[in-house]
Amino acid sequence: MKQIKDYHHKKVLVLGLAKSGVSAASLLHKLGAFVTVNDSKPLNENPEAQELLEQGITVICGSHPIELLDEGFQLIVKNPGIPYHNPMIQRAMEKGIPIITEVELAYCVSEAPFLAITGSNGKTTTTTLLFNMLEEDNKKPLIAGNIGTVASDVAQMAEKDNNIVIELSSFQLMGIDQFKPKIAIITNIYDAHLDYHGTREEYAKAKGYITKNQEEADYLIVNIEQEAVMDIARRSKATIIPFSAQRELKLGAFVKDGSIYFHDEKIMDVKDIVLPGAHNLENILSSVAAAKLTGAKNESIIAVLNTFEGVKHRLQYIGEIKGRRFYNDSKATNILATKNALAAFSAPTILLAGGLDRGNEFDELLPALKNVKAMITFGETAEKMERLGKMAGIKNIQRVDNVEKAVPAAFDFSEQGDVILLSPACASWDQYKTFEVRGDIFINAVHKLK
């Protein structure tokens, strides 16, 4: 870890805890900052805050008092989930207090370069693939961010010969200042998190921050088929490496004659890839490009793609019961992810869908429902999902209280050879703390059926 002086004797407010806030507060304390932590959860229900208190860090819990900002803080480290329209954040911006997220701290202390992945869909799969390829090639990767350990924890133990592979959300990227990945990937950009960002333009702008500090010696790997992504690429100073699953390219990663190529070098045949779904081919291409740029050998890349079946909660195969195949796609928190999941199957499908209502309709899903024979709906959007199902001419539609009850209900509508798919097209926060919790409940309910 770099022993930097940037935060020494600086008065810093860590706003919001969770894992990233705890890590940020502890790291800042080590770096000699005068740290105050503010979290909305009461202290007696907040073991993380109690732990920081024992370290000698000032802790204020139970609310976010705006008058706290009158105490002369020079920096705020914000939990990524706190929106910028939050009154506390608005007041801080009015006072000109710089606001960063924990990933910026990680970058400042890391000895190792960052390989950063963002996008609306596919970033977890891409991150996992890249990590596995580098691990297979003995490139000493460490995994961090939304998919792994908190970035600033990883950065503290990273050495110069490591590579930190990190999945980053738009929320995290809005809080960077100096962060500069050696390699950045933008998988795609679709409408997402508009309740946080306000507009698609602001959301795309946040995604583009991943390359704002990159230079010509750095690489930006981009989906050439997406204008929103290419618009970011045109403004980047990095060396652009495109990928496409639809056409042959002069350089970059692409498919030609049924094989994956990087530049003019054949890597492997597409038919030998285990991971299902046409959308996953794009994730594979971007991860291959990053692995090759990091110096990974073809043999290592092929070994991973010959065996990698996917990540948990993303089209995860759970098992088969009496000829019905169960898939957990709880990470499908938007319409595109569910469209991609449905496109991966030709068998009759029972779709389990619903969740947090962000104000949008689901008409875009209509063409993807051609193989759906029944729908089980739940959560705040259950009624909207039912309306969609009726528009698609689906005769069997049932509303249930939650995911646990959706599994036996789906089984009752199913026959041998059917797919039972949890792919909610919505965030989980109306009923579950995370999409992982939602997916685990689905998995447990399937096991109960057995």
TrEMBL record:
Please list which residues make up the signal peptide.
none
Its recorded reaction(s) are: UDP-N-acetyl-alpha-D-muramoyl-L-alanine + D-glutamate + ATP = UDP-N-acetyl-alpha-D-muramoyl-L-alanyl-D-glutamate + ADP + phosphate + H(+)
The main enzyme category here is ligase
GO molecular function term, any single one: UDP-N-acetylmuramoylalanine-D-glutamate ligase activity
**A GO CC annotation given for this chain:** cytoplasm
Q: Does the keyword Transcription regulation apply?
A: no
The places in or outside the cell where this protein is found are: Cytoplasm
Family annotation (PANTHER family):
UDP-N-ACETYLMURAMOYLALANINE--D-GLUTAMATE LIGASE
What this protein is called in its record is UDP-N-acetylmuramoylalanine--D-glutamate ligase
Question: Gene encoding this polypeptide?
Answer: murD
